[in-house]
Amino acid sequence: MLEEMITEQVWPNYNKNNNFALSLLKGRIGQAIVETYLLESGYQVYPFGYENNYANITRFVRKDQSDTTTTKIRSMPDLLVCDRDNHERFLLQVKTTGTPDESSFWIKKDVLESYLKYWPEALLVVYCIRTGKIYCVKTADINNPIEGTLSNSSGDRFYLNLADFHDFRKYFSLITTYQYFNLNKEITKILKTFNPAPIKSNNKNVNDCQVKMDLVLSPFMESD
Predict the structure, then answer these.
(1) Mean pLDDT, the chain, as a whole number?
(2) Could you give the angle at the alpha carbon of 112 between the alpha carbons of 108 and 115, nearest 5°?
(3) What is the mean pLDDT of residues 72-83?
(4) Can you spell out the DSSP letters for the chain?
(5) For a Cys-Cys bond, which of 43, 65, 111, 119 suits 70, CB 3.0-4.6 Å?
């Protein structure tokens, strides 16, 4: 299932768009993996973000619009997760990071402020590409984030310490320890199959895409 999700949602964009967005690739991989853990454990998962359910809206939501309605729409959580047996429902904001230092996670200031203002009940889930670990915290429980800037990124950001987050399974008890680690192993194997052969091209954009793809997937290519 995960292999199909990555093939259908992520990989086609790499072939079709030379100006491939690295952040989009990483985000979709993380969301697909989080969704896989939940589905395999018996949860029902539904796309919730406006990009998924309200595609036509994206044509009318400009980046420079900052009114309340537009900001709330743009900051909608990615997933709605349901446990019908226990009558529980969760909204998930899923982020993906490839940072080698998992004690630090940087998020755009305006993005986190929107989450805190409009979706405090949602869970912020951070998937770490390099280790496969999934961290989770209720948005309303994020207190006093540290403001700062990154040298290679524009705009103000907040620094969050992932040590203040919880293990993913704290909120999703249907995921057993055995299942968690078994799925992690299987997911790693699947991601290894997406290490593409080098593309030979005179087009700089195509070559740049190849380098970015290698950077995203390289942590999964190491031998077991």
Answers:
(1) 77
(2) 145
(3) 91
(4) -HHHHHHHHTHHHHHH-SS--HHHHHHHHHHHHHHHHHHHTT-EEEE-SHHHH-GGGGGT--TT---HHHHHHHT--SEEEEETTTTEEEEEEEEEE--S-TT-EEEEHHHHHHHHHH-TTSEEEEEETTT--EEEEEGGG--SPEEE--TTS-S-EEEE-GGGSEEGGGT-TTS-HHHHHHHHHHHHHHHHTT-PPPP--S-HHHHHHHHHHHHHHGGGSS--
(5) 65
Tens digit of each residue's pLDDT (9 = 90 or more) over 178-201: 999 999 888 888 877 765 544 455
Contact of 87 with 134, CB cutoff 8 Å: no
CB 219, CB 129: distance < 8 Å:
yes
Task: Give the burial string for 132-146 (b: 16+ CB within 10 Å, else e).
Answer: bebbbbebeebeebe
Q: What is the mean predicted confidence (pLDDT) over 115-127? A: 96
Q: Is the pLDDT of residue 39 over 90?
A: yes
- pLDDT(117) > 80: yes
Longest dimension (CA), the chain: 56
